[in-house]
Design brief:
- The chain contains six helices and nine strands.
- The longest helix is centred in the middle third of the chain and has 16 residues.
- The chain has a seven-stranded mixed beta sheet with strand order 3-2-1-4-5-9-8, sandwiched between helices. A two-stranded antiparallel sheet has the order 6-7.
- It has a single domain, classed as 3-Layer(aba) Sandwich (Rossmann fold).
């Protein structure tokens, strides 16, 4: 029997938690999971879908309203860090999962900024966790849809039943068309780069 652990998942957008870690979360219903989406909290379409997804993932969560305009204007790192700390119910978790500071595909600045902000907070001890996992995906400069890095610390192919639930969240709960980038991307394997309090920091 897996032991319950407190887990924070910190992402840029509603759907990132499902695309990059949904299978892992579905595989661990015993986790006490809190999910933060830093953008789109005022989005009348996507915000309700995020909270519906929380129920499916057996998680709770909160959304912020950081700028997410198409221009991708860089945000002040202190603003991102303070927003993360404000939205989380605690500063102490067994595990934190977030974006890779290099992102998951070419290219979304918010993903990169948030991954870096979480790593900085963890490094400074303002967020406490035994382990930090960053998403490990790439698209080789848009050569293909983002896929899990087989050489990452953690790499797992999802059982077909779990992948189907994940895909259903993307296409039915979030409502993405089956020909959309999101639906075509939905990875069948998930990967993470794992850091511990004893390993070299990012």
């Amino acid at each position: 029997m897996e032991t319950s652990k407190s887990v924070a998942v910190i992402v840029a957008h509603p759907d990132d938690e499902t695309l990059w870690a949904g299978g892992t979360l579905l595989n661990h219903p015993e986790w006490r999971c809190f999910i933060v989406s830093l953008c789109r909290g005022n989005d009348l379409d996507r915000a309700p879908k995020f909270y519906k997804t929380m129920k499916i993932l057996n998680a709770t969560g909160m959304m912020g309203e950081l700028d997410d305009g198409p221009e991708q204007v860089p945000l002040d790192e202190k603003l991102i860090e303070s927003t993360i700390l404000h939205l989380l119910p605690s500063k102490n978790f067994d595990l934190i999962i977030t974006h890779n500071p290099m992102g998951e595909y070419t290219r979304h600045i918010r993903h990169e900024e948030i991954g870096l902000a979480v790593a900085n907070l963890w490094r400074k001890g303002e967020l406490l966790a035994d382990e930090l996992w960053t998403f490990a995906y790439g698209d080789n400069n848009k050569e293909y849809y983002p896929k899990a890095n087989e050489n990452a610390t953690i790499f797992k192919k999802l059982p077909e039943t779990i992948w189907k639930k994940k895909y259903q969240i993307i296409t039915e709960t979030y409502g993405y068309n089956k020909n959309s980038w999101e639906a075509k991307t939905t990875p069948k394997a998930e990967a993470f780069q794992k850091y511990t309090i004893h390993s070299p920091l990012i």
